[in-house]
Design a protein that fits this description.
The chain is an alpha+beta fold and 355 residues long. It has 2 domains: 6-230, P-loop containing nucleotide triphosphate hydrolases (Rossmann fold); 238-353, Beta Barrel (OB fold (Dihydrolipoamide Acetyltransferase, E2P)). It has helices spanning 44-52, 94-100, 109-122, 138-151, 168-185, 196-202, 220-225, 230-235, and strands at 6-15, 18-28, 33-38, 59-64, 67-68, 79-82, 156-160, 188-193, 205-210, 213-218, 240-247, 250-252, 259-260, 272-277, 283-285, 294-304, 308-315, 320-326, 340-344, 351-353. Strands 6-7-8-3-9-10 form a 6-stranded mixed β-sheet, with helices on both faces. Helix 2 (94-100) runs parallel beside helix 4 (138-151) and helix 3 (109-122) crosses helix 4 (138-151). The protein is globular and about 75 Å long. The two termini are 28 Å apart. Bound molecules: adenosine-5'-triphosphate and magnesium ion. Magnesium ion is lined by residues 44-45, 160.
Length: 355
């Protein structure tokens, strides 16, 4: 990244003795959809509010388009923040709600009307222009809020849990709509979410946060396939994690009872690490497979989801591993309750974590 559009440099925020955000360093490129992902209370909204100018950082600096934002009030920033509740005015029609976003702009009546019409078209709500918020659906209200936010043509749009109020189907549909609107407008989006699937679907890159800190930044694939810590590995997707020790080229994993061959492992012998295995990267077979990383076990739980099944397999050590298997044939999975099976995985599937 050459000159990042948004640069967050060593930013922190304390409320009295409590540190809500700690030493956050992030660069966001122009036109990116960037997500902040993390559990409740980890500091996502506080970070957004600092970008919008509603909170002042206790430490660090924020640069937008190369310009230091310190002391710049919210209304003077080319930034718009869309709140979770949408904050639409119930007594105003859809088009007046959108026009409200332009109240500080120096525009003539016809210019304003043209911009509103353009925004209605963008979010496909032209037929609903004269309705009031209670006369449209939740997803449509979300699009009105988005249109109002985009009307001012911000360079940076901050969305705090934009889809949280929508049901699952509508949320999936609206995710794709958001992406297409972002593509057409070129506006840089920062989206806060605690839903990891949403972050994976929407984002070019994700920052995973915990207790006010950014734990890892990367593309959805990097975060999922190459997590750098136990926290990130278990926050994104599911894993079974084991304590392990590095010995001469392999991992000693007491719970598995066999030496594990891992591909990406740059730790000195004697280092204590975590081995994390994702359920979909494990194979279940009746016969002992050829090759390394094969462990015997017994099926002690089975959940059938139609397209696939989740197996809980108990090993001789008493450890329980979760494994997903796609149901290729109709009517029968690879194994049943209490069956003796073999679990195995490729060296490339073993995630080895130092922290
Ligand atoms: N004005 C404030 N005064 C004191 N503490 C605050 C204030 N605002 C936020 N906090 C605290 O800072 C922490 C981070 O809050 P924040 O709203 O940023 O969390 P979040 O990640 O957005 O969580 P959620 O997913 O629940 O919305 C929380 O522990 C919260 O209680
Ligand atoms: Mg929040």
């Amino acid at each position: 990244m050459e000159q990042p559009f948004l640069r967050i440099e060593g930013v922190g925020k304390s409320f009295g003795p409590f540190q809500a955000v700690r030493d956050v360093n992030l660069d966001v490129a122009r036109g990116e959809i960037f997500s902040l992902l993390g559990g409740s209370g980890c500091g996502k909204t506080t970070l957004l509010r600092m970008l919008a100018g509603f909170e002042t950082p206790t430490e660090g600096r924020i640069f937008l388009d190369g310009k230091d934002m310190a002391g710049v009030p919210p209304w003077a920033r080319p930034v718009h923040m869309m709140f979770q509740s949408y904050a639409l005015f119930p007594h105003m029609t859809v088009e007046r709600n959108i026009a409200y976003g332009l109240k500080h702009e120096d525009m003539s009546g016809p210019q304003r009307a043209a911009r509103v019409a353009e925004m209605l078209d963008l979010v496909q709500l032209t037929p609903f222009a004269k309705r009031k918020p209670h006369q449209i659906s939740g997803g449509q209200r979300q699009r009105v809020a988005l249109a109002r936010a985009l009307a001012r043509q911000p360079k940076l749009l901050l969305l705090d849990e934009p889809l949280a109020a929508l049901d699952k189907k509508l949320r999936e549909h609206t995710q794709f709509e958001l992406m297409s609107i972002q593509e057409r407008t070129g506006v840089t989006f920062i989206v806060v979410t605690h839903d990891q699937e949403e972050a994976m679907t929407l984002s070019d890159r994700i920052a995973v946060m915990d207790k006010g800190q950014v734990k890892q930044v990367g593309s959805p694939t990097e975060i999922y396939e190459f997590p750098k810590s136990r926290f990130v590995a278990s926050f994104i997707g599911s894993v079974t994690a084991f304590d392990a020790v590095v010995v001469a080229g392999v991992l000693e994993v007491p719970a598995l009872g066999v030496p594990v061959v891992a591909r990406d492992m740059d730790f000195a012998p004697g280092t204590k690490v975590t081995l994390a295995l994702r359920p979909e990267k494990l194979r279940i077979s009746r016969e002992r497979p050829d090759g390394p990383n094969a462990v015997p076990g017994v099926v002690k739980g089975l959940a059938y989801f139609g397209k696939d099944s989740l197996y809980r397999i108990e090993l001789a050590s008493g450890a329980v591993v979760q494994a997903h298997a796609v149901n290729l044939a109709r009517g029968s999975g690879v194994a049943d309750w209490d069956d003796q099976v073999w679990l195995s995985f490729d060296p490339g599937a073993a995630i080895v974590l130092g922290e």
